[in-house]
Every structure is written in C-alpha cells, then in structure tokens.
From TrEMBL:
This is NEDD4 family-interacting protein 1. Keywords: Membrane, Transmembrane, Transmembrane helix. It comes from Papilio xuthus. One of its GO terms (cellular component) is endoplasmic reticulum. The keyword Nucleotide-binding does not apply. It is found in: Membrane. One of its GO terms (biological process) is metal ion transport.
Length: 199
C-alpha cells in the first residue's frame, strides 16, 4: 500500500514536534511508595512545630478527677467499682440487668421476651429474658390447665411435659448465666460475643 508523500511528511513532522512528557509532581505516588512510607505521629508533628518556632502549642489537659456540680445530684463511682465501667464488662451486664429482664419477660410473657431480645444487648439481660420466658411458659401451662376444658385425663402428660420444659429453660438460663459470669475474664473477645446468641 502506497501512501501519498504529503501524508508521510505530516506524520514525520508531527512526531518530531511532540515534546517529551512533563513530570507531574501533583499526582499521588505509586501504591508501593505510599504503602511502605511511615507517616509521623501526631505528637511528632506537634514537637516539630514547636521546634520550628510556631509558638507553644498546648496539649489539652485531661479532665479533673473531682466531681463537679452540673445537676442536682452528681454520682461519682468509687475507685473500687471501675471494673464495672470497663468496656470489657459492658457486654456481660450486671445482676440487676438479669433480674430486671427476668421480671419483664415473666410478667409480659413472649412479648416481653421478644422486646428484650431485640433491644437489650448484654449477656445478663438476654439470659434473664430467657429465664423469665421459661418460667412464664410454666406459669401459663398451669393457668390453662386449671381454667379450661382442654385439660383431660388423656392429655395430662402433655401439660406436665410443657411445664417441665418451661422450668428446664428457666433453670438452664440461670445456671448458664452464673457459669458465664464466673469465667468471663478467661474468654476471648469472639467467645464473649458468641455468648449473646445462647451458645
């Protein structure tokens, strides 16, 4: 294929007129360089600014440990109860949470149990709700057995079975909560989170 001479002249003259590419320093560095470089910490940058003479930069002081009067009543926990406020123990909950959720699930039956399971995210409250639901199941079995005509001699074994199942759920939840509470510090973080789902 023969090309006309003027077209070849245009191609060769354009290749000689193109300058080499310019280095763009505003572009980000390649990933290898960025991933392997170590950035200074906040404290190092502040020290460097102070050494350059930009003026003294004051680091924020920690809040004071004494209680301040900002409301009618200020409750400050004693020094011995700092382990209850530990984020590690926030997943476990307290005995008060266990008893409160037990009574809510016992009084409001399956509705209380479901609400507690949805809105309470501690091991104590979930196991308390399970124990309250088990005892509520036994309570309602006795109520239905003695107040309706459904209870006959032929199916009395069924009522005893349902009531025993409810008591078994309650006792199992209480014992399991006490065992979890006793060995809480020995469990890893993932094992602690798994206990929220009754494993």
């Amino acid at each position: 294929m023969n090309m006309p001479a003027p077209f070849i002249d245009i191609i060769t003259s354009n290749t000689h007129d193109i300058p080499p590419p310019q280095v763009d320093f505003s572009a980000p560095p390649p990933y290898d360089v960025a991933a392997n470089s170590k950035l200074p910490t906040y404290e190092e940058v502040q020290r460097e600014k102070q050494m350059e003479g930009d003026g003294p930069i004051q680091m924020p002081a920690p809040p004071p440990r004494h209680s301040t009067i900002t409301a009618f009543v200020t409750v400050e926990p004693p020094e011995s109860s700092t382990d209850h406020l530990d984020p590690e123990n926030s997943l476990l909950g307290t005995d008060v949470m266990f008893l409160t959720s037990f009574f809510v699930a016992f009084l409001f039956n399956w509705i209380g149990f479901l609400l507690l399971m949805c809105f309470c995210h501690t091991v104590a409250s979930r196991y308390g709700a399970l124990a309250g639901f088990g005892l509520s199941l036994a309570k309602w079995t006795l109520i239905v057995k003695h107040s309706t005509e459904l209870a006959s001699h032929e199916n009395s074994w069924l009522w005893w079975l349902i009531m025993a199942f409810g008591i078994l759920i309650c006792v199992r939840a209480v014992i399991q909560y006490l065992n979890i509470k006793r060995g809480w510090r020995l469990l890893s973080g993932t094992a602690q989170e798994r206990l929220l789902f009754f494993y």
